[in-house]
Each structure stands twice: as C-alpha cells, then as structure tokens.
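Feature request disguised as a bug report, sorry. It would help if multi-protein outputs had a clear separator. Right now it looks like this:
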Amino acid sequence: MERADAPPDPHRGQWRIHGRRTPGRVVMVIQEGSCWVRRDDGTRQDLTARSVVIWEPGEWVEYGGDGGEGYKIESYWAQDLSEEEWEAIFAGAFGPNAVG
C-alpha cells in the first residue's frame, strides 16, 4: 500500500503522477480532498473524497490535482490479493456495510 498526502496549497498549484501502464490491478481510495484521473482514452474524471478508482492490468494509470484543497489517498498495487483482502480494503474505506 502507498499513501500520498498533499497539504492545501494557497497558490493553487497543480500536481500529477506521470502516467504508466499497470502490471496488475490497482485500487486507489481518495480519503480526503479531491483529485482527477485520466483514462486510456484521454478522458479526465474529477473525483472527491471517499471515491474509489480501480485499474485493471494493462490500463493507463494517471492522476493528479488542481491544487487548493490538498488530498489524502491510499493506493494498493497488488494483482494477487484475495477476495477477503479486497473486501477489507473497501470496508476500511467505506465501513462494514459497504461490502455486500
């Protein structure tokens, strides 16, 4: 698991993670703040806290923020997590009732 935090930026700077293809499944949980993700087709989606993004093997992973608010995210780069481990990740982010 990776954690990334960016404090609020009064200068409203921009940040981004340079894109790359994922070798396995990636799950990113936006814990606080907001950010955007860019997909294979170049479209950009704006997201806010308590969102989850899942990339499948071979998909383009690129995300960033437009400054101001700051953010906290957790990324899980593991292609071999069990179903129980995935459920624990989602339950930890969204509560025990989020997993069906």
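(second protein starts here, but nothing in the output says so)
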Amino acid sequence: MKTAIFITVRTGSTRLPNKALIEIESIPTIVHLIRRMKKIKTDHIILCTTALKEDDILCKIAVNEKIDFFRGSVKDKLMRWKEAAEEFKIDFFVTADGDDLFCSEDLVNLAFKQFFSNDSDFIESPEVICGAFSYGISYRALKKVCEIKNSEDTEMMWTYFKDTNLFNIETLNDIPTEFIRDDIRMTLDYQDDLIFFKKILNHFYKKSNLNFSLFDIVDYLDKNKEIININSYLQDKWRSNQIENTKLKLR
C-alpha cells in the first residue's frame, strides 16, 4: 500500500496575506515545512494546491524542492485530496497544513505505523501541540466522504469523518508526553504567529542547527516562555473560528 504526505496550501489568505511565501531566514515559510516533511520516509510528498494562476508559484516551489504537486478545487479540499490520491494511487496519507511549519516528523511516522498495524480510516491527535499534527486519512474513507457530502466548502473537513459514524476514528498512539501541550500554538494565521515562528527559526539557524526536532523546539520554548506568550492568546480565537465554520452537509 502506498502512503503520502499531502501538504495543503494556497497563496490566498486574508488574515496574513501570502503567508506561504513570507520569508524567514531568507526561506519561504512553505519551504520550511516541505524540508521538514522530506525527512520522512514515504512514497510521495505532494503539494496540494489550486488551479488558480496565483498558485503557479507554489508549483514552482514544489519542483525546485523535488516533490510532487497536484492542482485541484479552490474551495473543496476533500475533493482536491481525493483526486490527488487517485492520480498518485495513494492508500493512506497524512495531511500537513501549509500553516504548520513545525509539523512533527515523529508524529507523522507514528501515524504511518498505526495505519499499517490497524488499517485505519481516520487518525487524529487532539491533545498534541496545535500545529504538530493534523490527520491521517485512508483513501477509501475519503472516497466515501466525497460521495456523501453536500458542500464544496470543506475547509473544516473532519466533521465528515467524525460525525457520520461511518468510519473507524482512532487517536494517535504512543505520543511522546512532551508533545501533549495546550499552551503552545504552532500555526501561522496572524502577525503574532509569524513573530513566534521567526523567534524560533532565528534561534536554530543562528546555532546552525537545521535538523532541530519538535523535542528541540519544546525544550527551547520551555527555557524561553516569553516566546510561548507571543501568540498563545490566539488559541481561543482560533477555536471559536473552527467551531463557527464547521458545518456538516450531507446528501
């Protein structure tokens, strides 16, 4: 069975315009994520973006970074994933949102291991640091979801898996205790998130440590708690937005 990492990204963003292309240490934020994901052993790393002209630059970045790309629906993230999975013949994939620069290689590897052990439909990890892990999804479950959904607005896509009682929903196993935190926010949505990422990346690049892991990040943050405070206050705002925009629409 074939696995993949789907890096889901588009240039269109309103709260922090062109955030995928903002440079930190002279490297676009999306490239920081791509290079982290390239450390993981999988059949494909696929940048999943839209067919809009404005996203041409993301495809060029994928080519330069020697990963695959797929262009699909602008609003329907589920359909974009389904078509990408079909084109590359993927059985199971882990999503890495373009906002999540520090998505953990360790957690992604755990999700792949769990899929091969359990033949999982949907793997989540709600207790880990925000931005450290998104979801693991099987193609068969995704295909079923695309058959029953009745909306093209699938940004908040988990509801189609979790709230339909059709799938085996699993929590990620064997999570390191260091990663179970609700006080750290590692997703790029607002200006203070950008400041947070800059502080961390500046630190590790200054030390010439380009292979830093989530363990290293957490250790650094625990020694510099003022950096955690830069954007942690945004979590309540982020959660409220998630709840407000989560809608289950079935055929």
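Even a blank line would do. Unrelated, but nice: The domain at 3-245 is CATH 3.90.550.10 (Spore Coat Polysaccharide Biosynthesis Protein SpsA; Chain A).
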